[in-house]
Predict the 3D structure of the following.
Amino acid sequence: MEVVDRARRIILAPGKEWHAIDREPSNASFLLTHYVAILAAIPAVCGFIGWILIGLPIVTALVISAARYLMTFVMVYVLAFIVDGLAQTFGGRRDFDSAFKLVVYAATPVWLAGVFLLIPRLDFLQTVLGLYAIYLLWTGIPPLMRSPDDRALIYTVVVILCLLVVTIVVGVLLSLVIGFRAFM
């Protein structure tokens, strides 16, 4: 699997790509090392440069970027557990491997949009492209989690609400540990 080709296909033709992803064998460690680690590095590196451009000390920028990069891996797992745990509630099947693939590939536009973190005034575009990630999650739920199409939207909404709660809690905890609001 070529990272660039997969990212292009999931962005440009998600309906077709979700079915291809569903047929692939699952391997979380492979996805983490050959997809997540590569794409999640985009916002980490670009964010590091952006923080330096606005005058943050290098060590502080490095700590923020490294922590965010590492939290990406944690959040992928947490969100996959949430997607898997909610599956039967929305008429789907519990399958952690499929949930993991869904979360990883749905996050693609957010990671690619990390390039906008280079210019601090454009960082909002990463959030805007997060809306496309929500769309990808929604379109990926029926083929990967086997949830009926008519329940996929509410499934997606509940997953996103859970993600927001987890993100806020993790952000607050990390901010308390680090001592400033870099994660909020």
